[in-house]
Amino acid sequence: MSARGPRALGFGAYLGAHRTALVFCILCCAFAWPLLAAMGVGAGERGLLEVLLALAFAALQVGAWARERAWVEEARRIAGAGSDALALATDAEDADGLEGGALTGAVRAVAAEAARQVGAARAAEADYRDFVETWVHEVKTPLAAANLFVENANDPALRPLSRELARVEAYVEQALFYARSSSLENDYVIYDRALGPLAAEAVRSRATQLIEAHVAVDLMGMVRSDGSDIVAPCDPKWLVFIVGQLIDNAVRYRADPARDGRSPRIVLAAREEAVGTAGERVALSVRDNGCGIAAADLPRVCERGFTGQNGRSQRRSTGLGLYLVATLCKKMGLGVSVDSQEGAWTEVRIAFPRNRFGDERDDV
Prior knowledge:
The protein is of the alpha+beta class and 364 residues long. Helix content is 56%, strand content 13%. The longest helix has 57 residues, at 97-153.
């Protein structure tokens, strides 16, 4: 519902909307005076009859206004309810009068059809998600067999094949998380976890492509200065996927020593901010020294399918990586921001608000 709520239908507004009926009442009273005079009715009696006629018209208008105000306010309440409009329309009260009854019936019919379409859409989405998840699990078997064959062959000529298989696995994983992103609320479990081991797991999952791309990774900033772990509330599986997507982007748009005069590098760091306050949080950053993002593209990098200037120069860019990162972070209540300087660096920062989950977290 809007912040101000529905505005009541005032009597003046009602008369303005029914000005034709008001003019008719006034004309009736005006013509009654000479008509009664022609019939020989005295001035006193004519005045009394005019007053009674005016009161009768006024009573009729007040009654009609009261009935109309009820269903107009109900309609305005539904219209201003936002995401609750469908539920309110389904439970709309019966309105008095011909117009009110017709409006109530129409609103309920629209609400019933909308509910049916929403249910059908949700069922179709669930079927699609189940199909994708089943397909992903099925396709993992031949991929695992192909990887095992390549490893056992130990043939340097098969290294390009191993690299392509790793790309296929990454795309399969991305498809699975994309399909699940619409139902993430039922799929994640939040509890305190050390961020360093999770970041290291994400790096290990991309070890082959990092080595082949000659990208150095710095994880020193993932622990406190005394060597202890930095802990934040998160779902380990989803966070490893998110960090993996950020590593994929950093590798894809890495620095070229011949062109940029610097070796490609990724720095992962975590730090605690606003400790002891209501805004206490942990910030995880993934920073690379690659080609950066154009200033004009920066506001749109998290949009689905947006590839930008850099993506258009990369035929393999899908525009889904940062979109999935932003979507998953939003659904888990995490903040995400992207900053960059074109031709120099890019940094993605994820904020974990510690106080958001309260006592629902389990300490480990």
